[in-house]
Amino acid sequence: MNKVVQHARAALEGKxxxxxxxxxxxxxxxxxxEHCIEAIRDLGTKGLxxxxxNCGIDDFGLGILLRQRQIAKMISSYVGENKExxxxxxxxxxxxxxxxxxxxAERLRAGGAGIPAFYTPTGVGTIxxxxxxxxxxxxxxxxxxxxxxxxxRDFNGRPFVLEHxxxxxxxxxxxxxxxxxxxxxxxxxxxxxNPLAAMAAKYTVAEVEELVEPGALxxxxxxxxxxxxxxxxxxxxFEKRIERRTTRPDPRPSTxxxxx
Length: 260
Prior knowledge:
The protein is an alpha/beta fold and 260 residues long. It has a single domain (4-116, 165-234), classed as Glutaconate Coenzyme A-transferase (3-Layer(aba) Sandwich), CATH 3.40.1080. The chain has helices spanning 8-12, 34-43, 63-67, 83-90, 101-113, 127-130, 194-199, 256-259; strands at residues 4-5, 21-24, 48-51, 71-76, 95-98, 117-120, 134-137, 143-146, 152-155, 158-164, 168-179, 184-185, 201-212, 231-234. β3, α3 and β4 form a beta-alpha-beta unit. The longest helix has 13 residues, at 101-113. It is globular. It starts with a strand and ends with a helix. Residues 255-260 have low confidence and may be disordered.
């Protein structure tokens, strides 16, 4: 019942293989499993498909694995902060499946709940349902592979598109607290895709900031039951990064001297 592992590499070694599908929690750079990402980099596993809301930035988060050419395909909803992602996608080095954010969340939730597919109104009448979205470009810039048309049905006079659930071989998630049985509690923004990813994989590794003994967590406050978690890693440090800094204009009124 003790699921605590010494470090992330030990938790992933032998479980993560080339061409695996990995579900990664996080939203931007909030609540990302950074120790697990570093461990995957060190293991050198190749040809991976990652399912994540985004792909980090050029030098942090999943962007680290992208630079190492360890990711072959991304299933994401937002990719706007990573220039290397853009370069690899447009040059045909990376396959990308873009998915509406809420639909991506529900595809993961459905995978964890054992629901093979569901209908949603999101994306009806767009390239999401009609097909033709570029998944992979050729080196000359032409579309080598495009998305297929999806099934659309009417329910009560409204069209809905069929979306399939997502499951993975491995999930890497970040939580605030865990006990030795693997029960997890998330904090603030880390409640994003982490609980969904944790449920939808065959093998789940959770890295946490704090480890407590069984019984210390209020059962009503547990977000992910330990039955879904196979390994717990206690992080020694967590880097708080910001995707983009902006400078706000000075709110003070300008003076005559300023105008001059």
